[in-house]
Design goal:
Length: about 450
Amino acid sequence: MPKYFGTDGFRGRAGEILNADHAYRIGRFLGWFYQFYQKENRRPRVAIGKDTRLSSYSFEYAVAAGLTASGADAYMLHVIPTPGVSFAVRQGDFDCGVMISASHNPYTDNGIKLLDANGEKMDDATLCEVEKYLDGQIPEPPFAKDGEIGRIVDYSAGRNRYTGYLISLAANSFKSLKIGLDCANGAAWMIAPAVFEALGARVSVIGASPDGMNINNGYGSTHIERLCDHVKRSGLDLGFAFDGDADRCIAVDGDGNVVNGDHILYILAKSLKEQGMLAHNTAVVTVMSNLGLFRALDAADISYEITAVGDRFLWESMNAHGYSIGAEQSGHVILSKYATTGDGILTAIMLCETLLAKKSTLSRLAFDVKMLPQLTLNLRVKDKTKVMKNAEIAALITSLSEHELASGRILLRKSGTEPVVRVMVEAETAQECEHYASMVISRIKELGLHE
């Protein structure tokens, strides 16, 4: 398994855990890998996108410098959502794609996500080869010379095609809708308003003034309260909040209530079923999906496949079995007919399409999902694996689950990108959630496993 690349890329504090030298060396390896290691005697083509954080400027050009030094061409998409890079790779015959983003993290962090030629998260085997090179286990590749040196291409056409593709997916005019957009001062800040305005919606935008340091700062899908207030005060029909790289979407109904990824999956899966388009009558969810979603899907006679947390795992299950839709509660929604990754803007478009087709409101469509109170507490630890394998902690969770939480559950999982474990509890009341989650956190601390 990769040690630097977690479930969502190589991520960490910019200039410390992840720096421009890492970015350059990743570019160097990819340029060589696709030209020589795979025995393909041609110039590789790699698409590069980024979000709006300050460090993304140096990282994108460091990757490009590494690529061109190894003889590959770097196509610069500049500021674009992660799913835009995925789309560009699939449509433009690229060898791979690179997205510079730390998603919902603060601007002080950054990350490098690698996508394969299908626009999907790169496989572990290739990521491990990249890591071997970063660790000095693979010799330095030769530098390209003379006419073999790669080029940097301004690929604005890729951004325009992605924007046009999103607009083309809507079958209805949105002129009857007043829509709020929170772009998190991130990658969606130009494209999302342009798409919804082109579709005829009356758009009210917040979080669309990036300065390099305000991405996700009080705005976006992890700060949904800002959009809730904006929708309510402005008398809007609904709103959509994206994260820093816009592969997530959390919605808000006209009353200012949050409609999260679980609600969204239920709405779209039920609509697909009614249209006879829900493949195998199955939706894909994660272990973090709320029990309220499972109950609503059962009532709608929709089956579900449960995966580990991460849109990568959703897609692996969907791709392997031909499923139509998968989603995380955090707002990653994958619709396999249109994309291979989560796409926040696409999700928002499809929700609007469903509202218009049903002549309904978001609050009515989400009504059947009665969410149980859910609490997740994060704890920084010395060794995630030791915590996960600790027999005493496992015994405590089993005992609480079997004897005190008959109508709820406790889940312990490790972060894919940080030295953090997460304790999630669902119960009939918020007080119970806090009580049982605190018990598990306290036991981890008593054992001296925390930082």
